[in-house]
């Protein structure tokens, strides 16, 4: 993957827009989802949809902090595109009869905590912290989950939708890795000091505290659905490979941190990491919904309807 | 280069033809293009100076310019009426502190009546060419209907913002529903109960939106960049004030002076970055927080550029209108316009019966609304190709006896445009009087004077908020500011108070 010209990328993004109405959501094939797939697929789709939506909110925060006008506009588009993915996935759920009327599927508690954190603190985070975490989430969760979905579900409409989604995602990743390299370009020592200061930020610590259990929770959900854990980890290793392909990329301190973290995640034998994080997943499961504040209004913007 | 030479030759030929065509028409002393505030104000002051051989060419069939065209619901001025009116024609009867467009238009119409300006105006004369004839020292105007007019002096008062501008969105021609532009409102279209989309959230949009929210069944507002919106101290004028102004005119002048000084002080917030800028931003954020309780909506409406960089808006009812049950703000980028509505990047097609474009005006930083040919047929659009420039915003080297109102770098960001206009008009009167008194064929500003003036202006502009990094219609694509005046209105008035003859070449007839 060569380094990307961001100005050309912005033009390409603008020229490759699609809308929900480009897809015939009532086309035949919905019955190809089997009865035994259905309950697990419902859970899976709800999680996937929420991950897209969380990614969307992260891009919104990045747009605010983007160092150049071009990158700001790109992130503004990516924010909307992630929302489009969530909308399209919700439309698939509607097609498969997985929505309770017009109701949004409930996010799991770990996602709920991440949403809360994003809403409160993401706008304050340095753009490069999110700029490194988001490609990780996209490549690991989005990438792995989408691939798994296409291997499992035969509905042609699902394939049609994900073809479009994957095209978008490849552009998101291309930009993501280019930005990571941009950040790595420069004196490492200064970056180390800056990063240490950022790590002390309690808001970031809170973010980490909600991000770690989310990964483990998702891993558990995916494994429960029948995806081999190894496939998920292969995707995470891809992050390490692409992110570290250049000197600049490797010099990005955030890349190094997230790389090491992903190594812990994929190493099931690392009890130092997994025992406490799994415990947190379990604990968060006991948080009663009513103690959480009302969901922010951006969460309610999701829709499965192609027209408004 | 060859093309430019050919074009020069061509334009010179056109100028000669035009000169021949107009040679039989008796020239006016002053030929004014446009019967809006600027053109009419110029005519009044010329008349008061004893110059009555005036012709005003107006492209429409009525006076009023921008206030005739901008009649959309809610149209009003952002500057208090007592300051947005001519000091030489005060109106004690303004009904509100910030009057609506209809009342401002009535004021203009009454002005025409009061000063007997009808005799000068030629309606339905859309100028297509304005050319200078070096031999006779005359300006010749050709109009759409084939008529020709001449004058010793020409005043371009056609207004900087007079042609509706549409955004460059793909598919804009595809929409099958009703399309309306804020500057060409269709009063026959009934918005009641309709699904209406508004594109734009600038000065016109924030006035239209509260009115449309009252009528439309569903109102969707598409925003690209949120603006700074300040509270608007708008109130009905009490009767006692009108009586006082009528009986003691000095009291109205005093209020005008007070408003003027209050606006002058705003320059400190708007034009340059100062502690007052932060204070103004705080006021803007307070206004938003007070009117919008939802955190996400507030985030969507919070500007991400320094206050003053773009035009500051004032409204008390814009934020509440966006929160009406039938209204919705969309901040997703627009992907394209389709047959049925607007497709945004989140994949949804927002379907409408009508789309309202509140997207302002065509702004030309380099061109001119019609070809203007100066000495030896040179074309103003060529001279301005890299950004418009003038001497003190009013004269251009190579274009003798031509005066501009609202010329390059005369725009205020903090005070009434009419205050600036009065300075320009008085300068024009001085110029015309000089030409007549000295019987000049040409009063031509020197290149050097214009260059020195502009070097100074651009140096000062570099330190202003307008040039601080945001994109606005004040700047060209290359970031050149040919629009705004970097200083107080008082500074502008001072620079315009003297016609410095050493900066001009005087050619006697």
Percent helix range of chain B: 25-40%
Q: Segments of chain B where pLDDT lies below 50 for 5+ residues?
A: 1-23
Spatial separation of the terminal alpha carbons of chain B: 35 Å
Overall SS class of chain B: alpha/beta
Major sheet size, sense and barrel closure of chain A: none
Count of structural domains of chain B: 2
The protein's oligomeric status is heterodimer
Question: What would you give as the CATH superfamily of chain A?
Answer: Ferritin, core subunit, four-helix bundle
CATH uppermost class of chain A: Mainly Alpha
The end-to-end distance of chain A, rounded to whole angstroms, is 38 Å
Quick one: biggest sheet of chain B? Answer: 8 strands, mixed
- The stretches of 5 or more residues of chain A where confidence is low (pLDDT under 50) are none
- Rg of chain B computed from alpha carbons, rounded to a whole number of angstroms: 24 Å
| Extended strand count of chain B | 20
CATH architect. name of chain A: Up-down Bundle
GO molecular function (chain B): flavin adenine dinucleotide binding; N,N-dimethylaniline monooxygenase activity; NADP binding
Pfam families (chain B): FMO-like
Keywords (chain B): FAD, Flavoprotein, Oxidoreductase
InterPro entries (chain B): FAD-bind_Monooxygenase_sf, FAD/NAD-bd_sf, Flavin_mOase-like
List the helices and strands and how they pair.
The complex is a heterodimer of chains A (308) and B (509).
Chain A: H1 6-15, H2 37-65, H3 69-95, H4 109-121, H5 127-152, H6 156-184, H7 188-199, H8 202-225, H9 229-243, H10 247-251, H11 253-266, H12 271-284
Chain B: H1 2-22, E1 28-33, H2 37-48, E2 54-57, H3 66-69, H4 101-114, E3 121-122, E4 127-133, E5 138-143, E6 148-156, E7 178-181, E8 195-199, H5 205-215, E9 218-222, E10 229-230, H6 239-247, H7 249-270, H8 275-291, H9 295-301, E11 313-314, H10 318-322, E12 327-330, E13 334-337, E14 341-344, E15 349-351, E16 354-357, E17 372-373, H11 380-383, E18 402-404, H12 417-437, E19 440-445, H13 447-461, H14 489-496, E20 504-508
């Amino acid at each position: 993957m060569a380094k990307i010209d961001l100005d050309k990328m912005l033009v390409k993004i603008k020229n490759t827009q699609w809308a929900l109405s480009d897809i015939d959501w009532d086309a035949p094939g919905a019955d190809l989802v089997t009865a035994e797939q259905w309950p697990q697929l419902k859970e899976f789709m709800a999680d996937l949809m929420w991950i897209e939506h969380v990614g969307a909110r992260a891009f919104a925060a990045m747009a605010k902090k983007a160092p150049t006008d071009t990158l700001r506009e790109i992130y503004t588009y990516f924010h909307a595109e992630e929302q489009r993915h969530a909308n399209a996935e919700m439309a698939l759920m509607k097609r498969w009869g997985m929505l309770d009327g017009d109701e949004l599927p409930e996010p799991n508690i770990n996602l709920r905590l991440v949403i809360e954190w994003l809403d409160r603190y993401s706008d304050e985070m340095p753009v490069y912290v999110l700029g490194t975490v988001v490609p990780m989430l996209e490549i690991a969760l989005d990438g792995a989950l989408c691939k798994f979905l296409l291997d499992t579900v035969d509905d042609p409409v699902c394939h049609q939708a994900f073809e479009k989604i994957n095209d978008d995602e490849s552009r998101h990743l291309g930009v993501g890795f280019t930005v990571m390299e941009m950040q790595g370009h420069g004196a490492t020592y200064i970056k180390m000091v800056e990063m240490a200061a950022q790590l002390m930020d309690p808001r970031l610590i809170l973010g980490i505290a909600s991000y770690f259990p989310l990964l483990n929770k998702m891993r558990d959900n995916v494994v429960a659905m029948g995806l081999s854990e190894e496939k998920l980890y292969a995707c995470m290793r891809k992050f390490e490979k692409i992110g570290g392909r250049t000197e600049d990329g490797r010099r990005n301190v955030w890349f190094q941190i997230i790389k090491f973290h992903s190594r812990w995640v994929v190493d099931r034998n690392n009890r130092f990491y997994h025992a406490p994080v799994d415990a947190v997943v379990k604990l968060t499961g006991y948080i009663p919904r009513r103690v959480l504040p009302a969901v922010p209004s951006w969460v309610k913007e999701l829709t499965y309807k192609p027209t408004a | 280069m060859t093309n430019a030479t050919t074009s020069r030759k061509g334009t010179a030929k056109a100028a000669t033809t035009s000169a021949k065509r107009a040679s039989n028409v008796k020239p006016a002393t002053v030929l004014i293009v446009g019967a809006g505030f600027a053109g009419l104000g110029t005519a009044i002051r010329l008349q008061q100076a004893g110059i009555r051989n005036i012709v005003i060419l107006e492209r429409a069939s009525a006076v009023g310019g921008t206030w005739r065209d901008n009649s959309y619901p809610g149209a009003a001025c952002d500057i208090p009426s007592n300051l947005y009116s001519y000091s030489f024609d005060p109106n004690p009867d303004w009904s509100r502190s910030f009057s609506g467009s209809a009342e401002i238009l009535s004021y203009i119409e009454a002005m025409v009546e009061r000063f007997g300006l009808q005799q000068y105006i030629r309606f339905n004369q859309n100028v297509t060419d304005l050319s200078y004839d070096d031999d006779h020292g005359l300006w010749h105007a050709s109009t759409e209907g084939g008529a020709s007019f001449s004058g010793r002096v020409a005043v371009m008062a056609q207004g900087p913002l007079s042609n509706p501008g549409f955004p460059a969105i793909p598919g804009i021609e595809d929409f099958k529903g009703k399309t309306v532009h804020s500057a060409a409102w269709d009063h026959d279209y009934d918005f009641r109960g309709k699904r209406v989309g508004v594109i734009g959230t600038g000065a016109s949009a924030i006035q239209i939106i509260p009115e449309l929210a009252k009528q439309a069944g569903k109102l969707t507002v598409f925003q690209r960049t949120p603006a700074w919106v300040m509270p608007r101290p708008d109130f009905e004028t009490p009767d006692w004030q009108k009586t006082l102004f009528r009986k003691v005119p000095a009291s109205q002048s005093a209020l005008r002076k007070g408003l003027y000084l209050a606006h002058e002080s705003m320059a400190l917030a708007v034009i340059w970055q100062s502690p007052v800028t932060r204070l103004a931003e705080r006021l803007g954020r307070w206004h938003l927080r007070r009117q919008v309780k939802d955190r996400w909506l507030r985030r969507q409406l919070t500007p991400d550029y320094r206050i003053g960089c773009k035009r500051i808006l004032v409204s008390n009812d814009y934020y509440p209108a966006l929160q009406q049950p039938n209204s919705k703000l969309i901040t997703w980028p627009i992907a394209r316009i389709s047959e049925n509505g607007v497709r945004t990047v989140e994949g949804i097609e927002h379907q409408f019966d009508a789309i309202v474009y509140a997207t302002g005006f065509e702004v030309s930083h380099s061109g001119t609304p019609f070809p203007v040919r100066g000495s030896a047929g040179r074309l103003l659009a060529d001279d301005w190709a890299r950004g418009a420039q003038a001497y003190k915003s009013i004269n251009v080297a190579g274009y003798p006896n031509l005066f501009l109102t609202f010329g390059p770098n005369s725009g205020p960001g903090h005070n009434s445009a009419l205050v600036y206009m009065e300075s320009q008009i008085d300068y024009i009167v001085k110029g015309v009087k000089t030409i007549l008194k000295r019987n000049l064929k040409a009063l031509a500003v020197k290149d050097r004077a214009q260059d020195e003036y502009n070097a100074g202006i651009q140096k000062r502009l570099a330190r202003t908020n307008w040039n601080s990094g945001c994109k606005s219609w004040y700047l060209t694509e290359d970031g050149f500011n040919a629009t705004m005046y970097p200083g107080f209105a008082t500074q502008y008035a001072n620079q315009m108070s003297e016609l410095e003859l050493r900066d001009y070449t005087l050619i006697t007839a």
